[in-house]
Write a structure and sequence with these properties.
This protein has 8 helices and no strands. It has 207 residues and is mostly helical. The chain has one domain. 34% of the residues are buried.
């Protein structure tokens, strides 16, 4: 996902940005699920702003690999959700799924407005860190909106489709979703899909 990371400073910035974005993302899912009537995530200790609570062992190893090599993918521990506890299962599933990407978009917007309009008495290094956080939040938001499991976009699309169509979609994606996701990642299709909106919003937010 990232290439040509030149220095320890850049690695640290990427690490801080990714861990912050991931934590906000998973926290938003957990908080939205609780608001919809499901306390599964709360019981699992996932309504937390501690990054450690959201780290997946394999995803963390891949995260370290990504930082050291400048490319790759990383992921956090999925938030446990029981849709049978929702007051309105399909509608609430849609809201819970959307709140992860939306939280990253909101974070990117707030940080971008700070960089753009608030005169900060800080060095350029910290401005670069904030700008990196904006970029990573945008990338995480739009990547997760790709409608392929286990990404949030698959649950969003399933919740919006007519019931019978959603069942067929879920069945197909259950069989072939991982293959499709790997193809998207390793062919570079995901860059074609997510980079245009990421670049557009980055320029709008940061200036």
């Amino acid at each position: 996902m990232f290439r040509n990371i030149p220095s320890v400073q850049h690695i640290v910035m990427m690490a801080v940005a990714f861990l912050t974005a991931l934590t906000i993302h998973e926290y938003a899912h957990a908080r939205a699920a609780l608001a919809a009537g499901d306390d599964t995530a709360k019981q699992a200790g996932r309504i937390s702003l501690n990054p450690i609570d959201h780290l997946d062992p394999v995803g963390t190893i891949m995260f370290a690999f990504m930082l050291m090599n400048g490319w790759g993918i990383a992921w956090g521990k999925p938030v446990p959700i029981n849709p049978y506890n929702f007051k309105s299962p399909r509608w609430d599933s849609l809201k819970v799924s959307l709140w992860g990407p939306l939280s990253n978009l909101l974070m990117a917007f707030v940080l971008g407005m700070i960089v753009r309009f608030v005169p900060l008495p800080i060095s350029g290094v910290y401005v670069q860190l904030i700008e990196t956080c904006v970029l990573i939040n945008l990338m995480l938001a739009f990547f997760n909106l790709i409608p392929v499991p286990p990404l949030d976009g698959s649950k969003v699309l399933s919740s919006l489709l007519p019931y019978e169509t959603a069942k067929r979609y879920d069945y197909t994606m259950g069989k072939y979703g991982l293959i499709i996701l790997l193809a998207i990642l390793f062919t570079g299709i995901f860059r074609i899909v997510i980079l245009p909106p990421v670049v557009l919003l980055y320029r709008l937010f940061v200036g």
